[in-house]
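Justification of computing resources. Each target in the renewal requires a structure prediction run like the one illustrated here; the chain below, 179 residues long, is used simply to show the kind of job we budget for.
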Amino acid sequence: MEELKAQLETLHAESFGWALCCCRRDRHRAEEVLQEAYLKVLSGKARHGGEGAFKTWLFAVIRLTARDEARRHWLRQLRLIRAAKPEATTAPYVPSDSAALTKALDALPARQRQTLHLVFYQELSIAQAAGVMGISIGSARTHYERGKAALRQALAGQNFFDEETDHGSGRQKAALSVL
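Resulting structure tokens:
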């Protein structure tokens, strides 16, 4: 149990970043999702079978927990609408110095946004990102390439990307790390 806690502590910052991505930068919801994921891991509801990296498995647990939380949130919203009781919404956390990049990332489909987040922020390979997301490597590559192309188009003329470099370049990584 202590080793498990140590692994979770080591990955906490990265896990929170991934939870933010899965929760569309809603800080409050990301905190709840991460807490729920940690409870699943520590209570044994979610167990790492030893296949693959612990980080990849943990990120998959966080993604699935965020999906379940989003579904529960949507159902709560639907019930509130039916009851005609408006609910106050919390504004998602958006860093002020990266508004153009944040807007471009938010405009991407969820899988493209998540793939880019895992590859650039969490420094996972495309194969590891595919494992976290529960999709094939080919699908992950497609989401990765389409996401990069969409960002290039959305950020054209803003010097975020150097077209002569590929994944992992300093400029791209710096551009994507401002969130």
